[in-house]
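Entry 12.
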Amino acid sequence: MNDPERWPEVWLPDPYLDNADFIYPGDELQISYVDGEPRILVLRGDREVEELGPEMREQALSSAIPAIPLQAIENSFTRNRIVSQTLLEDAPYIVSNIGDALAIATGDEVHARGEWPAGTTLFEVYRPFREHYDDDDDDILIGIEVEYVGFASIAAVESAELRRLSINNSAKEIRVGDRLLVRGETTTGATIFPTEPALDIEGHIVAFLGN
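Predicted 3D structure (tokens):
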């Protein structure tokens, strides 16, 4: 009885019982001998069967809903964006890697070409991921989801259209052709307070970003 691996040597399941290898509360175990060998039999006890299913349970709150620290859930966020086709096509793009590295990653420098917005030197690097269309009309393009792959900063102005950029961070391999969008400031505070919307919101989910 002290060695669970030897349990099959003494256990004698009854083939006429449902789930004969299971023991339930209320069952009785009977020790007997079969062909001179000790065996354990199970005698089913009375059991009340209660069928359970999913249901909503309400519980009174003893205090306000606590604030959620950003670091506790920030790994669930995604930096993917949905942008218009025009914005994506007009965005500057990487044309070459400076150096001998085969893959572009953090610390590398690249050349990028395009029309550059004034007043900023920080850009996020994105790659077209998939297109989203209106559910009621497949010909209406809602926007293009772009995948975040890193961010970069302008290191030097080579010409009116050409810039040399430093890759400050890469979430994955950066490639020639990836687009550069102005890096926006985050509006998420260090602490999140769950609240209901101030106005009624109506809409439906068209996709989960990144999936």
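Annotation: The chain has three helices and eleven strands. The first helix runs from residue 7 to 10.
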